[in-house]
């Protein structure tokens, strides 16, 4: 199977801790997925969607080094396989198990990579992965804003979290490729822009507009901007750690740049560096083009939503605007391969970015928490029906080599897997050679 466009949604599986680690915010629990998972999968068929951003709850599944409780994953992924749904597996979403602690733990990358390896072994038919969701936002909210997990607020703690998170993502990709050589990794990362309010704010806005690229620069092995190199080294990253990322640039060939865009992703910057929301000034198309020009990778719009308001059509209009942006950049040459309304159901406490446990239901989903369809759900279903057959005719060459779960062991997929295995072995040899050169240079 080669898909020309992936219409997707997701099951929210954020699991950060707050209150200095005493309170776990488990969105799967709060949104009722543990109870209604069969119904949630039924709703995908109702929407004509067969691509789902989904992952098992890390804190319940990864219970110790080399120790797992696969019970929930086995039944849910067994059902996903039976239904031939294509999952984009989200292995870590804003939190880690209590026994790991938080993202300051230097053991996290290796531990997480072992989890990714063992997940891939257990579910070898899975092809698409987001190992760690929104790496930049996770580090920022946990270790710079002081909202989640370690709840720290320094540049040094931010850099520590960021380097551990991105390293974990890279090591996980390497381990998954050993099991499924033709795996594809969809980075789900927030795309941001910072607007200077006045001339005195230009410098802080420029710094923020450089910092927004850090997670993807490191993940894709791209040299960071000069001021960011100094920032990283001034705050605890070593030269050896930096070269670890540069030496793994070949992994980008297995990646789709997933970018997330909300009405809060653009910011107004004051001279003192304080920011506030600017609304959608440039919009998804312009900001996505900035990221595409930097990385030159296929693009997927991996998250967006808006609360349904008193008029009832606010989310519907936002869906239309996002889709118009997707068509705009696709028609001007950016290879966009998918779109996601996130998530399937309403979410809880995202009005305060999960900082407080108020149990406030945010009407963001295609369905409410009673699994009744919202206007945006009906609009998304119609959008998919209208455009699903049109997009392939616009470009017969713009395809993603995705196989259905049921096709995992078929001949063409096995042959593609062997070709991918040989390619990966060549990449590993090149990475080893590059690493050896860096060692000799030191």
UniProtKB/TrEMBL annotation:
Residues 433-442 have a biased composition (Polar residues). It comes from the Bacteria. InterPro entries: GH, Glyco_hydro_1, Glycosyl_Hydrolase_39. SUPFAM superfamilies: (Trans)glycosidases. Gene3D superfamilies: Glycosidases. Residues 423-442 are annotated as: Disordered. This is Family 1 glycosylhydrolase.
């Amino acid at each position: 199977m080669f898909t020309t466009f992936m219409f997707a949604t997701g099951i929210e599986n954020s699991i950060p801790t707050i209150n200095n680690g005493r309170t776990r915010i488990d969105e799967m629990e709060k949104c009722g997925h543990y109870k209604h998972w069969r119904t949630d999968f039924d709703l995908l068929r109702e929407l004509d969607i067969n691509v789902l951003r989904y992952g098992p709850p890390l804190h319940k599944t990864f219970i110790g080094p080399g120790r797992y409780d696969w019970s929930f994953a086995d039944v849910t992924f067994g059902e996903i396989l039976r239904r031939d749904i294509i999952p984009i597996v989200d292995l870590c979403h804003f939190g880690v198990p209590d026994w790991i602690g938080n993202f300051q733990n230097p053991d996290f990358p290796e531990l997480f990579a072992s989890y990714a390896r063992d997940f891939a072994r257990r579910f070898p038919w899975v092809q698409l992965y987001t190992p760690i969701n929104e790496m930049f936002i996770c580090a920022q909210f946990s270790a710079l804003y002081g909202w989640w997990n370690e709840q720290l607020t320094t540049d040094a703690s931010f850099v520590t979290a960021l380097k551990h998170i991105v390293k974990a993502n890279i090591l996980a990709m390497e381990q998954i490729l050993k099991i499924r050589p033709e795996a594809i990794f969809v980075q789900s990362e927030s795309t941001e822009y910072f607007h200077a309010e006045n001339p005195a704010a230009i410098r802080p806005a420029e710094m923020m507009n450089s910092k927004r690229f850090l997670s993807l620069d490191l993940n894709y092995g791209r040299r960071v901007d000069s001021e960011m190199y100094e920032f990283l080294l001034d705050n605890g990253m070593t030269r050896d750690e930096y070269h670890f990322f540069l030496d793994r640039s070949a992994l980008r060939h297995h990646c789709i740049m997933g970018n997330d865009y909300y009405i809060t992703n653009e910011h107004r910057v004051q001279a003192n560096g304080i920011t506030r929301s600017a609304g959608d000034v440039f919009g998804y198309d312009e900001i996505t083009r900035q990221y595409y020009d930097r990385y030159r990778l296929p693009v997927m719009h991996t998250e967006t939503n808006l609360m349904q308001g008193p008029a009832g059509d606010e989310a519907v209009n936002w869906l239309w605007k996002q889709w118009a942006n997707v068509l705009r950049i696709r028609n001007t040459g950016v290879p966009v391969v998918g779109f996601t309304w996130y998530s399937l159901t309403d979410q809880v406490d995202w009005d305060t970015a999960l900082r407080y446990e108020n149990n406030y239901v945010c009407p963001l989903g295609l369905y409410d928490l009673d699994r009744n369809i919202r206007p945006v759900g009906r609009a998304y279903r119609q959008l998919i029906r209208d455009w699903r057959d049109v997009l392939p005719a616009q470009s017969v060459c713009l395809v993603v080599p995705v196989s259905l779960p049921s096709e995992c062991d078929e001949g063409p997929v096995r042959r593609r897997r062997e070709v991918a295995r040989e390619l990966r072995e060549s990449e590993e040899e090149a990475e080893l050679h590059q690493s050896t050169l860096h060692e000799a240079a030191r």
